# Entry
Amino acid sequence: MDARTRRYRIVIGVDLTEYSHMVIEHALDQATHHAAPELHFLHVKETRRRDMREVSERLAATVYPALQVFNQHGTNWRARLHLRRGKPDQQITMLAADVLADMIVIGQFGLHRRSLPRRVLTAAVCPTLIVGMPHALDTRQCFECAAIREDSDGARWFCDDHQVKHHAVSPMTVWTGGSLMH
# Structure
């Protein structure tokens, strides 16, 4: 890497819940799109009750396995573990500002109220990726409609029972062929 090339910096909020691996996975996926990523994994300790050393060890144990796998895909990356005290939204956005982050990656779930992502988005100095849980499969959808959509490659969307005049589906552009399908 040229000495003048700036690393792409990502701040990753890790709350140490069972969902942390999802946030880390999404952050590392973003990092693969850059030649020289710099990863800043952050856990914010809100209370003084827990031992900082214990929390630091948990953070390392959560992050290191993912970094070992990530190391198989590239070696021109750097990572730091950060442990701070305070309010998570403030500490996440302050670290992002401190390191001149290009992106923040946080979860929508975990120990904090759902308002945490909104507060981070409001104060963020860079784009923010909020990782959420996948939606449950909608079993109310008509099986026949789904089959017709799949079999027609999107040309038809509804079965005869559900085809209604007010359901309009725009034509799909097929980029591989570059033509508009009707």
In short: Residues 47 and 75 are 36 Å apart (CA to CA). The two ends are 48 Å apart (CA to CA). The chain has two domains: 8-131, 136-182.
